[in-house]
User: Fold this.
Amino acid sequence: MDTLKFKTTINCGACVAKVTPVLNEQENVKNWSVDTENPDKILTVEGENIDDNELVKSLSKIGYKAEKI
Assistant:
């Protein structure tokens, strides 16, 4: 299983609720979480053969930035 990490602009519980449907419909994503306590708001995504560019584009469409780290 691959684990990818992204620096994001997902700041709070309401933000997490907004991105939940987008992340849940991503192909090959098994688990994900956002550390809103971390200053970089780290999104951790686990799965197989995840298309990180597609994930970043999907978040961008709903107003969030994500940068792979």
In short: The chain has a mean pLDDT of 94.
